[in-house]
Amino acid sequence: MNRMLRCLLAGALLLASILVSLCAQAVEEGGKSHLLLKKGDRLVVTGDSITESMCYSRYLELYLTACMPELEVSVMHIGRSGASLGAMKIWTPLLLLPYKPTLVTLCFGMNDGAYAAPNPGTVEGYAKNLRGVIGALHDAGVTVLVGSPGVVDSHYFTALRSPHTPGEDAAIYNRTLAGLRDAARDVAASSQMPFADIHDTMFSIMQKAKAVLGSEYPICPDGIHPSANGHLIMAYALLKAMGVDGDIGTIVVDMEGTATASEGHRILAADKGAVQLESTRYPYCYEGDGKSATGNRSILPFLTFNQELNRLTLRVRNLKGDKARVTWGVASRSLTSHELQAGVNLADVFADDNPFKINFQKADAAILAKEIFETRIKEVIATVSTQLKTPEDQAQVDALRTMLFAKVQQKAAGIRNILAPVKYMLTVVPEFR
User: Fold this and answer.
1) Closest to 382 in 3D by CA, of 399, 363, 401
2) What is the pLDDT of residue 214?
3) Of 65, 111, 212, 388, which is most buried by a Cβ count within 10 Å?
4) In this structure, are residues 180 and 126 in contact, taking their beta carbons and an 8 Å threshold?
5) Which DSSP string do the residues of 92-140 spell out, in sequence order?
6) DSSP string of 345-411, one letter each residue
7) 344-345, strands of its sheet edge to edge
8) How many other CB atoms are there within 10 angstroms of residue 198's CB atom?
9) Are 250 and 313 contacting, i.e. CB atoms less than 8 angstroms apart?
């Protein structure tokens, strides 16, 4: 009996060991398993005038092209001023499906709420239209990342339609948008589609920023349309919902030996604390100063973009002394030995200046030019399609669309050429008292 018990116990322990091993493997591989994007995917970013302003969509394309070039994701942007989800019924066959997307992000709701106080009928209509759009895209084999509406600015929004309480327009309409957020979450869940809570993310960051910088610090200077700072929050929420892990890479410098680097970064030469590298994977770079809302730099103290989505880690081994001067490109910082041993985020420490910034800014300008062209495509196709009705006419529309989409791909190739591998020096020099 004791022998049987021992055998059963040994078997149970073996089974437990196997299960623990499998769970550990699942955790280890889990960082990549939930990523929505696959290599070669085609992403369409769509929405209303907030999307048409070509800012958060630009940030998304910049991130996916510069920070994750190995995915080779194609991005197209389609926004339309004043649009609601009902307009998507027209856009889907005319523009979205011909582009053959694999993933579409939706960011509607600002206009769907009708700039009025919360109303169950408004929520029901929004949910109905959202189910229709998701259904049409799902039938075409497209994954839909359902984004909630954003927020209106707590200081600048005054456009609420009656009935309303003077001075409380923003609070009332943000409750309306919160109701649409809940509907978007429910529809996404029932449709088995991913969801991005843009509303809660923007609301929380807006409160934190205004508490420090003052109520007049604008997230949406006209009350509705975000500045660059608000658009970075939107891009953050969507990238997080895509499952992006934010690991740009790791560089390890041994002060008594050579250096190593992770995928996307190559050591060209190393002599103790002096390392020459070449990187194909860029850290995300910012624009503007630490105070102006017209650049996205000012929102970083309140948004964990660098910590969660933009980690290029430097670790230093065998450092003598309490501090070291780290020079990355032309910029230098004094960092403690403890910080360097634990690992510092170069993208955060050198957010204002780094070797990638010039190329990054050029790519930003090129993506803006590409999105302006995409906006013209939308206008041309919409105009031509309403006037040409016969099958022969439709064939001409298809040929025009094919030609224009080919131009988009040419522009995208030019952006990838701008984001060429960057060679740079990284040096670590001990500082002694």
Assistant:
1) 401
2) 93
3) 65
4) yes
5) IIIIIGGG--SEEEEE--TTTTTTSS--HHHHHHHHHHHHHHHHHHHHT
6) EHHHHTTT--TTHHHHHHHHHHHHHHHHHHHHHHHHHHHHHHH--SHHHHHHHHHHHHHHHHHHHHH
7) 259-261, 247-254, 311-317, 344-345
8) 27
9) yes
Nearest to 309 by CA among 234, 416, 200: 234
Q: Determine the pLDDT at residue 87.
A: 81
The domain locations on the chain are 38-241, 248-295+309-356+421-431
**In degrees rounded to 5, what are phi and psi of residue 325?**
-95, 115
Question: What is the value of pTM for the model shown?
Answer: 0.90
**DSSP per residue over 310-332, as a string?**
-EEEEEEES--SSEEEEEETTEE
Task: State which residues of the chain have pLDDT below 70.
Answer: 1-33, 163-164, 166, 388, 433
**Which pLDDT belongs to residue 93?**
82
Going by C-beta distance under 8 Å and a sequence separation of 6 or more, which residues neighbour residue 428?
253, 255, 273, 316, 319, 324, 325, 326, 340
Q: Is the separation of the CB atoms in 335 and 348 below 8 Å?
A: no
Q: What is the pLDDT of residue 163?
A: 66
Cα(171)–Cα(254) distance, rounded to whole angstroms?
54
Position 26 scores a pLDDT of 36
Distance separating alpha carbons of residues 286 and 277, to the nearest angstrom: 22
CA 43 to chain centre: 12
Q: Cβ distance 127 to 178 under 8 Å?
A: no
- Say if CB 106 and CB 145 are below 8 A apart: yes
H or E segment and range at residue 8: helix 2-33
Instruction: Mention every residue, 6+ apart, whose C-beta is less than 8 A from residue 391.
Output: none
What is 38-241's CATH number? 3.40.50.1110
- Tokens encoding 53: 């302003």
- Between CA 344 and CA 332 the distance in angstroms is 14
Tokens of 9: 């116990």
Collapsing DSSP to helix, strand or coil, 162 comes out as coil
